[in-house]
Amino acid sequence: MSDRAAWQPLRDELQRWADAGRRATLWFRDDDAIEPTAALDRLLALSDRYAVPMTLAVIPAYTGEPLAARLASQKALTVTVHGWTHHNYAPDETKKQELGPHRPQAVVLDELRRGFDKLKALHPRQFAPMLVPPWNRIDKALLPELAAFGYRAVSVYGLAKPDQPIALVNTHVDIMDWHGTHGGRAHGELVGYLVRELQNRFDGNSEPIGILTHHLVHDALAWDFIAALFEETAAHAAVDWRNVGDFMG
Fold first, then answer.
1. How far is Cα of residue 174 from the mean position of the Cα atoms in its chain?
2. pLDDT of 1 strictly over 80
3. What fold, for 5-247?
4. Residue 239, beta-bridge partner list
5. Which pLDDT score, from 0 to 100, does residue 2 have?
6. What is the domain partition of the chain in residue ranges?
7. Distance between CA 156 and CA 171 in Å, rounded?
8. According to the model, what pLDDT value does residue 140 have?
9. Taking Cα atoms as reference points, which of 208, 60, 83, 102 lies closest to residue 146?
10. Does residue 237 contact residue 16 with C-beta atoms inside 8 Å?
11. Could you tell me what this protein does (predicted)?
């Protein structure tokens, strides 16, 4: 799987890191978990096989004891808050948002408080006080209010903007082609994105690189990418796969 030519640019970049005696920091986030499924089992099996820590962004309103029981014995797993219902409240012609300015702030914040408390109770050992906004979008006015409920970080998409009122632990490589095939992106394309992120970090940005997946909608291309990525990186001297809790102070 990992001998494909598409992966050579990553091997070359990681060799550059190794030659410099440096290690790149990566973390893994998967969104939309609610209940045990065959797809979730497949994802967790990859985590186990390669000993790569994973963060699951769980939708609080619809989850419960079945998922908690399934995850309780899972090693190197973190549960975070994925909005409340993952419902879109934005007008049709605009980008989807659950945590936007389209409802009273007090209503949105109450949902985020409930989501935090519910997942912390369901997953006491694996819970991390981080909010993952659905669609990676959140009204900036909400950010200063989150710490009062216990949140210590937010995770969206793209390089983190400086001077935020709460820590940002973002993702940077989304393996899904949401606007095209709705399946996994071509491996060469994703390798290119990852290499660019690595080059950015080599040049001085210390932000951990986040990989973003959605287990419920993966096709064969997406599953193959995760397996190949772990094959290439899990035991590499220049790669440090970390638990998201390590980045929250």
1. 9
2. no
3. TIM Barrel (3.20.20)
4. 24
5. 45
6. 5-247
7. 6
8. 96
9. 83
10. no
11. Is involved in generating a small heat-stable compound (Nod), an acylated oligomer of N-acetylglucosamine, that stimulates mitosis in various plant protoplasts.
